[in-house]
Amino acid sequence: MNSTQRQGRPNVLLITVDQMRFDCLSIAGHPVVETPNLDELARSGVRFSRAYSATPTCVPARAAIFTGQSQRAHGRVGYQDCVPWNYKETLPGELAKAGYHTQCIGKMHVYPARNLLGFHNVMLHDGYLHHNRNNHGIPMQEHYDQVDDYLQWLRERVPGADMTDLGLDCNSSTVARPWHLAEMQHPTNWVVTQSIDFLRRRDPGKPFFLWMSFVRPHPPFDPPQAYLDLYEDADIPEPSVGDWAETEDPDLAGYSPITGRGLVPKRRLRKAMAAYYALITHIDHQIGRFLQSLNEYGELGNTVILFTSDHGELLGDHHLFRKSLPYEGSTRVPFIVSDPGNRLGLQSGTVSDHVVEMRDIMPSLLEAAGVPIPETVEGESIWRLASAGRDGGSKPDWRPHLHGEHAQGLQSNHWVTDGKEKYIWFSQTGKEQFFDLVEDPNELHNAIGDEDRQERIRYWRSVLIRELEGREEGYTDGHQLITGRKPVAVLSHIL
């Protein structure tokens, strides 16, 4: 007898990857990327084609997943490490209180690093985090040697190994080389190996919540050679470059890992793109490995599955790289739900164009588990969007738009979108952009000056003003946007 037959509740499997673009699924029409296992999840489940990360870097995106809140409520509106996580209601915490056996394997990126945040156990690998490695004259409160489980595991097998052995920077999206050790020792394989072991050692009398949290395809771009070989000779399309992008580099400054922008030699960029796609296929195959084990344990049909990424990767679009900026490659993510046991009545094989976001994960998974949703949660459960029982196929009421942002010095930005149009405001310079995502999905033309767009631009500007009313930074007086107000990465109410 399996655990869910005893409890009458489904297991919950959350699979997240780090820095995967929305379009890197073969089922979504990507001309190169191969993702057979994720494609099958989408065919048997529902794929959300307009999923976003409202604050697209690791820390704030994960705050939204853990709390089900908007960035205004969870308080992390930019990237800042070493700010304690003191949230009372969290996704794993609510499931644990309801009798679930809760386990995270892989990346958490919380502080302190070993903060359980409601999990019964965490097998941790956050990747290379600067605050756990660098000592700039300030005594470190925690060091990677003390907090990273994968590194300890690796060093038992490869004495002296480190995460920097390949010489690749943890934030560079422009350089790549193949993984140098056995494939089974790659961090992607480690997450799945430990997850399969969890199936063996879990409490058999409880349903489980497992968060498989991969660090890749976040840099370093280090796929096993067999996966890199899949893309070495592929006809990889060049990145999209808008009419508004910087296209000259007279000082030969090249790519800046600090700003995430710059011109990169085509050969190097192509290699990086091939490695990025290879990491995604590697993850896909390892997800397939885990799903096979889940089936062997008799739990696949008793498990609700959600797959997504915390944010995207610009990967050279508009000569930009990494994340945090308001463009589709950075903010838009894959989002797939699957219910092999058909508990939720999903309209299998369909694609939803409703705008969903990281904050919707917590209420969705709690509802699937039959667990009450705390009042602190601002996201909404997505199951009614994916249900086969909608009356006459009519669209249910849903959020009319999403407000996204990221504090980042001169690049600090705010944006609003309904998945069809997008308005962007850079708070420090006052620069504005407007994109028609239906006619111009690659954001090639900034229509902010087009006469026929002015009514829509005024509308979206007013929407952003309403979203920013009352913010401590003073971005608006309720009538207009105010340029030059000092951005903060963390709002004062959580400090």
TrEMBL record:
InterPro entries found in the cross-reference section: Alkaline_phosphatase_core_sf, Sulfatase_CS, Sulfatase_N
EC number(s) per entry: 3.1.6.1
Keywords: Hydrolase, Metal-binding
Gene Ontology cellular-component terms listed: cytoplasm
Gene Ontology MF: a single term: metal ion binding
Coiled coil feature spans: none
Record carries keyword Zinc: no
Span of domain Sulfatase N-terminal: 10-371
SUPFAM superfamilies associated with the record: Alkaline phosphatase-like
Enzyme class, spelled out: hydrolase
PROSITE patterns: SULFATASE_2
Similarity comment text for this entry: Belongs to the sulfatase family.
Name of the molecule in the record: Arylsulfatase
Natural source organism: Paenibacillus lautus
